[in-house]
Amino acid sequence: MKVGLLQFNVRSGDRKANVETVTRYMAEAREQCPDVLVLPEMWTTGYDLVNLAALADDGEPFGALLAGWAKETGATIVGGSSPVGVDGRYANTLYAYTPEGERILSYEKAHLFGLMGEDRYLSAGSAAGNFGIGEVPCGAVICYDLRFPEWIRKTVLAGCEILFIPAQWPLSRLDHWRILLQARAIENQCYVIACNRTGRDEQGVAFAGHSMVIDPWGVLAVEAGEEEGWIWAEIDRDKVERVRRKMTVFADRRVDLY
Ligand SMILES: NC(=O)CCC(=O)C(=O)O
């Protein structure tokens, strides 16, 4: 499975510019014959939460754009997230689409990040983000969800060999980003595919980039720097099976204790 992660400088409040950027990169991705493409968190609008009512959509055209790119590239798209509003309730929502343009996941971020104002403007989701890419069981969480191992373990116990994590994670906590991603991969013995944004927002906050793919043994398969663009990795599903067989963490859990 060939996976591409796109990190770019998301323009706050400028949906048109962000869509243009991704459209340009999708044309580039097609040349790579990808299986899966991943986008960052809140890539359509950034964190312009004060203007949420004007910027959010009801799932369209966000969904139609992703479905179109999935068909155009022939890849499953794990489409990062966007503010989606229904009945005056807004959620940080992740969609995924098959290459045929069928939606296979709608996941709402479960843990709202107060330091970026999410708790004041957004509603939290409460359903786990399990889905499948063909026969491969996958899961997804969004950014701050990464700090909640219980939530991710629940997703993995429901069946997950590849965990996707779109993010807008600041450069000032790059060490947390890397350590937590590796820990989630090691403890859950699954691939972690984490796609972060780059650049600075309008308040001058710098974002880390450093999108990465980590294998089920915790080894970095690929890691971006801070520059914009695609990074690519090959996922070997057998590796998950080998690691889980070698070290029987799931069978060894003390479910009588916790
Ligand atoms: N967008 C987010 O959820 C950011 C989370 C974050 O920065 C953290 O340190 O956690």
TrEMBL record:
Statement: the UniProt record of this protein carries the keyword Hydrolase: yes
Record's keyword terms, sorted: Hydrolase
SUPFAM superfamilies recorded: Carbon-nitrogen hydrolase (SSF56317)
CDD domains: nitrilase_5
Domain CN hydrolase: start-end pairs: 1-237
Molecular-function GO terms, alphabetical: hydrolase activity
Pfam families the record matches: CN_hydrolase
Alphabetical list of InterPro entries matching this protein: C-N_Hydrolase, C-N_Hydrolase_sf, UPF0012_CS
PANTHER family on file: DEAMINATED GLUTATHIONE AMIDASE (PTHR23088:SF27), NITRILASE-RELATED (PTHR23088)
Family to which this protein belongs: Belongs to the carbon-nitrogen hydrolase superfamily. NIT1/NIT2 family.
Name this protein carries in UniProt: Carbon-nitrogen family hydrolase
Organism per entry: Heliomicrobium undosum
